[in-house]
From TrEMBL, chain A:
Signal peptide limits: 1-23
A Pfam cross-reference name: NosD
Gene3D superfamilies: Single-stranded right-handed beta-helix, Pectin lyase-like
SUPFAM superfamilies hit by this protein: Pectin lyase-like
Organism (species): Cryomorpha ignava
Protein name (Swiss-Prot/TrEMBL): Nitrous oxide reductase family maturation protein NosD
Domain Periplasmic copper-binding protein NosD beta helix: 163-348
Keyword set, alphabetical order: Repeat, Signal, Ubl conjugation pathway
UniProtKB/TrEMBL annotation, chain B:
Protein name, per record: ABC transporter permease
This protein's UniProt keywords: Membrane, Transmembrane, Transmembrane helix
TM annotation in the entry: 17-35, 42-67, 87-112, 119-140, 152-172, 223-245
Natural source organism: Cryomorpha ignava
Lineage: Bacteria, Pseudomonadati, Bacteroidota, Flavobacteriia, Flavobacteriales
This protein's record includes keyword Membrane: yes
Length: 419, 255
């Protein structure tokens, strides 16, 4: 069963050594007058565990400088009383924090105050905590090999300038962010200079700006996340080799709202995602060499807005269902490859019955071009006059990019069974 | 008046053209949902039919029916009844029979296959459109006594409302694109009942695209419940104006 039996022996030795070193367990209970968490931490030595009983702890600026495990029993509360302070600062490797509620960290215009800050450390985890009404929720800087799992971060922000991010990661590597629920902050997850990290199964909704904000972060994977109802969707900017798989981008509506905004990114893949009811499903600016495959675009205003500076992208085997506009572009040329997609606006026929339409399909229509120039013309949507213009333009392409064509449009939508 | 309207309605429901258009609506209504397995797409097609075909059919048929009932009208007027009662009866009978044909023919498959607020709005505005175009037809016919001229005029009006008007709007948008013309466009769309119905439907079906409008004027206006009430009131105003206009014309006409 095990490939390497010696690894089993290794685990036993490790377990034994744990017993030998006799890691101590401390309990802090505010109702029984035990020493405070700060005092307990001062006494604890490396490898110890501190258990915290339920109650409201009004301690703040607790700095952890030893590799200890801090466990809350039945969610004890850290309350910062809306003061301009931070609650927990992790300054040591191998610290594990779980089972706490962090509350009321004030907004500061001078410092990025976070309920839980992790600075210059490695190998730790932050699991199953709740953050309520904090400026920043979890803040990682110069962290490596960290696990953030099962946390709920809920803000109460109304305007962007005075709001912090739910999970903020800066200059880090090998971070895993899983199963978190993030809402009502500025950005749900903010990544800047974060490499080789993994974001999965998070739910990010009702955030003021982006559900996920990605800057200068390379070789990351995000999958199975749900981004719903955020101010302007998800932004992935200035990054390379990012993989986006099986995420759901939903209900990002507004004048500058996107399901997914791609800006200056390259060599990534966007596969098996669902884009539902966004004003713009994907907005691509300077996106190069990406693979967009097996995605489902349903009921979006514009499925993909591919700007002229995006090149060598491959868009294949996607479903475009009932979008108002399928592809919009501001260029007269096409340097991307569209192949074997299903377009619900396609009205060709299939005489040889191979499931592929016999006529090529041009997904950009003239009306999309017109609305690109005069947005208020959207009001003329589905007008008979506009339909006539479109039909003529499709027959004799003059204004729309003639090369932007799917040679193998599918007759039936693909049936994808993910999420 | 009610008595006359009853006779006319019974006569109309037996009319071959009305039965024909009813069957056409049934064929379109069921056929579209039969061919198209995406209800959203079928709804769009139903909308095209409602916005193009329905006004055309009601306009032409109402005209022909009114002109062909010339002797009957004269006979009625020789009796001691109010003049306005006759034209009112015409309006009511035509509206009822076409509403019946449309609501049963297209409305039923629509609501069964795509039970959604969009479908309801589609149906309500379709009915409004139908009354408006019955009104327009009677308005023209009571004014113009020559049958050929009347039908010709009605056809031109149909072309104007169905697509020429939209062409003009787009032209205006292009010419004055640099200016804040949203409010102007908003006012202009109210001059075309087909546009009002179209916009109140697309505000529901293509809400995602509409939210992207920089001219949020439209979304604020049409997108909300208030907007729906206003657009329906505008349609009602159209019905009222056309109805009162035809009554006035009829009173003055030399019959």
């Amino acid at each position: 069963m095990l490939k390497h039996p010696q690894s089993l022996v290794g685990i036993f030795v490790l377990l034994l050594s744990c017993l030998v070193s006799q890691a101590a367990t401390f309990t802090v209970d505010i109702n029984k007058g035990t020493p405070s968490i700060k005092e307990t931490l001062a006494h604890a030595s490396a490898g110890d565990t501190v258990l915290v009983e339920p109650g409201v702890y009004r301690e703040h600026t607790i700095i952890i400088k030893k590799p200890v495990t801090l466990i809350g029993i039945d969610f004890p509360v850290f309350d910062a009383n809306n003061e301009k302070v931070e609650i927990l600062i992790i300054g040591s490797d191998s610290v594990h924090v779980s089972g706490f509620i962090f509350r009321n960290v004030s907004v500061s215009y001078m410092n990025d105050l976070a309920a839980l800050k992790v600075k210059h450390v490695k190998y730790g985890s932050i699991v199953n905590n709740k953050f309520e009404n904090c400026f920043f929720g979890i803040y990682l800087e110069y962290a490596q090999h960290y696990l953030l799992k099962g946390n709920t971060v809920t803000g109460a922000f109304k305007n962007e300038a005075a709001a912090g991010n739910a999970i903020h990661v800066w200059k880090a590597k090998h971070i895993t962010i899983e199963d978190n629920v993030l809402s009502k902050h500025r950005d749900g997850i903010y990544f800047e200079f974060v490499d080789s990290s993994y974001i999965s199964n998070n739910r990010s909704f009702n955030n003021i700006r982006y559900g996920l904000h990605f800057m200068f972060s390379n070789t990351d994977v995000y999958s199975h996340n749900v981004f719903k109802h955020n101010g302007s969707g998800v932004a992935v900017m200035f990054s390379h080799r990012v993989q986006m798989i099986q995420n759901t981008f939903e209900e990002n509506k507004g004048g500058a709202s996107y399901g997914l905004l791609l800006k200056e990114i390259s060599d990534g893949s966007i596969s098996q995602n669902i884009f539902l009811r966004n004003t713009i499903g994907i907005m691509a600016e300077g996106a190069n060499r990406l693979l967009l495959s097996e995605n489902q675009f349903t009921l979006n205003g514009t499925a993909i807005d591919m700007k002229g500076n995006s090149l060598d992208n491959i868009i294949e085997r996607n479903n475009f269902l009932a979008n108002t506009f399928e592809i919009v572009t501001n260029s007269n040329h096409n340097i991307n490859k569209y192949d074997s997609n299903y377009w619900s606006m396609y009205s060709g026929y299939d005489l040889n019955r191979d499931g592929i339409g016999d006529l090529p399909y041009r997904p950009v229509n003239l009306f999309a071009r017109i609305t690109n120039e005069i947005p208020s013309a959207t009001l003329m949507l589905h007008s008979f006059f506009v339909n006539m213009l479109d039909a003529t333009e499709r027959l004799f392409p003059d204004l729309i990019p003639a090369e932007l064509v799917d040679e193998n449009p599918m007759m039936k939508p693909y049936i994808y069974d993910f999420n | 008046m009610i008595q006359i309207a009853r006779y006319l309605t019974i006569d109309l429901l037996k009319n071959r053209a009305v039965i024909g258009s009813f069957l056409l609506f049934v064929a379109i209504g069921w056929g579209l949902f039969f061919i198209e397995n995406q209800p959203e797409k079928a709804l769009l097609m139903v909308m095209q039919v409602t916005l193009l075909l329905l006004p055309l059919i009601t306009l032409i048929f109402s005209c022909i029916y009114y002109y062909n009932s010339y002797e009957f009208t004269v006979l009625l007027l020789s009796n001691p009844i109010k003049r306005s009662a006759v034209i009112q009866a015409f309006f009511i009978a035509l509206s009822i029979s076409f509403s019946f044909a449309y609501t049963i023919g297209i409305g039923l498959p629509l609501l069964l296959n795509n039970p959604s607020p969009e479908s309801v709005i589609m149906l309500v505005s379709g009915n409004f459109l139908l009354w408006i175009f019955v009104g327009i037809a009677l308005f023209i016919c009571t004014k113009v006594n020559d049958k050929v001229k009347g039908i010709g005029l009605v056809l031109i009006l149909w072309a104007f409302f169905a697509f020429l008007f939209d062409g003009l709007l787009i032209l205006i948008m292009y010419q004055f694109g640099a200016y804040p013309i949203e409010k102007l466009i908003l006012i202009l769309t109210f001059l075309n009942p087909i546009d009002i119905s179209r916009i109140s439907v697309i505000m529901q079906t293509d809400a995602s695209a509409m939210m992207g409008l920089s001219g949020a004027v439209f979304v604020d206006f049409f997108g909300s419940m208030k907007g729906l009430v206003i657009s329906f009131s505008a349609l009602l105003l159209w019905v009222a104006v056309m109805y009162l206009g035809s009554v006035r014309n009829f009173r003055k006409s030399d019959l």
